Each structure stands twice: as structure tokens, then as C-alpha cells.
Amino acid sequence: MLEAIAAEVGTPTFIYDAAAIRGQYARLVNSLQSAPHRIHYSMKANSSHAILSLLRELGAGVDIVSGGELFRALRAGFTGRDIVFSGVGKTRTELKDALEAGILLVNVESEGELRLLNEVAGELGAVAPIALRVNPEVTVDTPHPYTRTGERGLKFGIPYAEAIQVGRLALSLPNILLLGVDMHIGSQVSSLEPYRAGTERLLELHAKLRLEGANDIAYLDIGGGLAVTYNDELATDVEAFAAAILRIVENVPLTLILEPGRFLVGNAGLLLTRVVYRKSSGGRQYIITDAGMNDLLRPSHYNAYHHIESVRPNGQRGVFDVVGPVCESGDFFALGRSMDAAEPDDLLVIRSAGAYGFCMSSTYNSRPRAAEVVVDGDRWAIATEREEYSDLTAREITNLTWMDG
Asked: Hey, what long-range contacts does 1-4 have (CB within 8 A, 24 or more apart)?
């Protein structure tokens, strides 16, 4: 099927396995079935319409972090009550659009945001439903520092020591309704301890807020970040994770919210690319592909590992740097990798590219973005058409209209 897709759609192309996504979703839901819960897929992992539609059909809601993701979620058929809105820098326009859409919760991350939201809600004659996103200040071990969000001093969430003060303010504001407490500790978290510690801190905060008169809190949002395997990392033991969390919340009358992203789609996707050249330089052997860092940024940005293999191995192996055509030394998918000795025109599969692949891609070097394809059993369909050169300049203005300053 991969060769047929390459022949019809071309390369590079992202390909997603619908059955794999269904399996991950079912595993998570089944592990939590003994407690009231909601699964809100973290759209930043992959916001393709086809992926969103599949997860909506499975019963998921979404966690968004921008007005653009709100637009995509509504376009995919999610209703306002299916949506929670996270992010440290929500603008006035984004907050207005979110309230007008009737979203379930705005996850407020600062006192300044809370005050602005109260103002926007007042202008609309509305009451804004919120959760306080708190930085639980727990130590998290993730593969890269950029994927940690719950440690002291990071930009995310309200510092734990200030949470009661912000909670009191929320209770005093006329256009705010405090409905939840929330955290997100990071991404690719395989250890259960940070989740346990963070959840317990949220429940301590909930108890303190109840003493302040916060009697409407109905949601306990523990975020996402469940780990998957790229190489030799430990994946999250979902069943053990659920059992540990459920023990903590079993006597708490709150609905649990989880925001998985990579866990649902990461290993369900791959990037299909074609070898353009082989090259030797300075004692290094290069495989040069038609995909580049503009298509899959993770190896360059996070030093991330992705398995790479030939669609049709020729029986030969070697040690190679797998690189793209982008004019950057950081344009690589693997360095010093022992792998199939692919030749020009061979197809390569770059595994585990379902999360933070296409959604982080760009047109750097004026390279049109890749196509997206969904496979479901023995059938497949184009989900996103490959961009053309004309798309690169579609919004550019060739004859400028000058204005006086």
C-alpha cells in the first residue's frame, strides 16, 4: 500500500493508521471506566481534520491552545461543550470567540488573564466558565527540557503558592464561574509519581477553595503527557496510571479530565519519503531524501529519535546520516544511524511521526507542505492535498498600497 500511495500522492507524505488511533483511545477509556471522566484530545499534537473527525466519532472532546484550533475544532463538528481552552497567552479576541462558542472551560493561567476574561465576559453579558491551571511544581523527567511544563519557574500555569489568591479573585469577579482545577506537568512522562504528586496537590487546592466558598467546582483536569515509545523509552503503563489516579480521586465528587495528544496519535503516523541521492563526505555516508526539517522538525528541534527503514530492504546495511534538502546543517532525521543501505529512488519510512509532524511543518526554503493520508484497514484516502507552488504566494501582495504613517 505504501508504494501505491507514493505513486498516487507523491512524497513526502504523512500517513496515519485509523485503527491504531482507535486502539489507543479504547485502551485509555477502558482503563478509566470506573470513574466519571472526559477525554479531551490535545489538538496541538495533530490538528488534521481527518484525525479530529475520527476522534469526535469515538466520543472525544478537544483541548485547544489557540483561536485557530478553536476554528478547526468547530469545523470538525465539535460543539462548545466539547472544548477546553489552555495556553498562557490567550488574546482578547480568542477569549471572546471562545465564550461565544460556549466552550466548557477556559483554563486560566494567570491573574492578568482572569481579569481580562472577566472584562470580555462582561462586555458579552456572559459568565465565563473557568478552571484554574496551576503549576503543581513537581519534578518531571522527560526526554527534553522543552517538554516540561509543571516545574517551578516555568511559564505555564499559576504558581502554586498564588493559586488560592487567584481563586479568591475568581470567586469575587461577577462574570467568572470557577468550575475546575487543572494542571499539565509535561510531555512524554512515563513515571507515575509526578502525576500522583500533582493530582494530590490539585485536590489540596480544591479543598482549600471549597473553604473559600468555591462550591461549583466539578472538574479535575490532570492534563496529558502520557509517554509513547520512539526508541528505547519507557511508554506509560496506562492501566497502572489509571489505577493510581483512580485511587486518589475515588472519594472525590469530581469529573476527571485528561488531555492526551501524542499518546493517541504519535505511533499511529509515519512520514513516507523517497531517497534522492547517496553521497560521501569527510568519511560520512549520507542518504539524502526529499523530506526535510520543514516537514518533520522533531529530530532537529528536540534531538528526537525516529526509526527509519526501507519499504523494500535490499539486504545491505550501513551507517548513514539521513538528511534532507533544506539549506541548514540541522536538516537531518538521523546521524550515524545503522540502517538499510537505501539507494536513490527507494522509499523510506520514518516512524512515529503522527504527533508534532505535519502540524509543526513549514514552508521554509519555499518548500510546499506535504500531503496527509489516512489508512483504514485495506483502504486509504487523501486527507490533505499537497501544497503547490502557487499556495506559497497566495496571500502575498505584489502591488503594495502605501499608507501615510
From this structure: 1/375, 1/378, 1/380, 2/272, 2/311, 2/347, 2/349, 3/311, 3/312, 3/347
In this predicted structure, what is the pLDDT of residue 22?
98
Please state which CATH number belongs to domain 2-12+267-383. Answer: 2.40.37.10
Read off the pTM: 0.93
Half-sphere exposure of 36 (CA within 13 A, CB side): 9
Write the pLDDT tens digit of every residue in 119-149: 999 999 999 999 999 988 775 555 545 444 4
pLDDT of 45 > 90? The answer is yes
Cβ density class 377-399: b for 16+ within 10 Å, e for less: eeebeebbebbeeeeeeeeeeee
Q: How many Cα atoms within 13 Å fall on the side-chain side of residue 223? A: 31
- pLDDT tens, position by position, 337-366: 999 999 999 999 999 999 999 999 999 999
Give residue limits of the domains in the chain: 2-12+267-383, 87-258
Ramachandran sector of residue 283 (left: φ over 0; alpha: ψ -120 to 50; beta: rest)? left
Q: Which member of 4, 7, 211, 327 is catalytic? A: 327
Active site residue 359: no
CB 270 within 8 A of CB 305: no
- Looking at CATH, the fold of the domain delimited by 87-258 is given as TIM Barrel (3.20.20)
